[in-house]
Amino acid sequence: MNKIGKITICSLLFSMNVAAQEPATTDSVSTQESKPSLMARLNQVQQYLDEKARAKVDPNYIEVPKKPWRVVLRYKESVFDVDYSNNLGNPSAGDGAEWKMRFEPPMSPSLGVWAGYRGTGIAVAKNLGKKKGTTLSFSTTGAKYGANLRLRSFDVTEGTFTSTIYDNGKVLHLNGDARLLAPVNITSLYLNGYYVFNGRRYSQAAAYNQSVIQRRSAGSLLLGATLYLAGIDLSDDKNSSLILLSSGVGRIIIHQGNIGIGYGYNWVPFRGFVVNAMAMPTVSFYNRVKVNEYDCNYEMVEATGPTDDYGQWNPDTHTWANGKTHRPIPIGNDDSWYDGVDSWEVGSETTYSLLRFNLDLRLGIAYNWSDYFIGAQAQFNNFFFKKDQCKINIYDAYARISLGVRL
Known about the structure:
By secondary structure, the protein is mainly beta. It is 15% helix and 58% strand.
């Protein structure tokens, strides 16, 4: 092949190669441009959620902020009060005693952070002061609904004791501070959900988590449901005197489901500021109380003979060396007998009932400016339980201050 032919063939091959590469390069570019980036997809999802949120509310009453993310710093004070009472004998007939023990632990402060998107987020809080611990919670709210969960567990050794004793026409009143030799453990779980009938113009969340901004005053009927679980454990051996006063009750486990209709109102005196008040009486549709009964080797009776001949206690046979099963509690200030107390569970009983009336009260204040907001919230719950002569009244409340920023 001559020189001219070789040049011609090389030129053709080069031109063919170039021609083959150019479309490939063009296709590659167009393919990359057709695939949106991860950030672009997240923006599309955010725009879709924002449009859905705004479509559910009346913009003249509720404003959905453009910035959906929020970080909130919270300081909270919690209060928990348990009134536990029982009767011995037949006080109404003038024979026996009425008594009440009130457990009122000191207010428990905590500092935490809430972070989330719109009305859904996670909060982590650290308890301050003597009661150390960490709390993790999850909450979510929308235009027509809201839900929150609260879990508490603590030990208490101090309380106040009041009693009225009836004996042959005589009445004796006793009251004072009580310090238990062993802690009583109290646990509670509170799960609440609500539905807003006027969700287009009224927002419960505007005052409590600032996911939206209430622009005009409005109110709404609310439908709420609450699941409340509580446990009171007295079963430590050194609490035997309290168990005896409770007619052998050593542990109480309470399950209660409530439903109610209430009303909430948002007052907006000027732009960015809202005051909310909500009240909801509820009635229980499910009320389960399980009582674990205990016995111990001492009893609250007057000694009829010498008490130094009881000898050694046998925990296997539940008898003293002299064959008796119970030893009278010594009268006086000597608490050394507690060191020999042995208690054991003898059975349990579960009862069900309806028509327990409870109350849910809430108050919230919030102010929004620019991308920042500040708020103060308070909530009060009251739960009442009864089994035979045993009554339990639980007051569960908190107050909280929050400062947040929209991102």
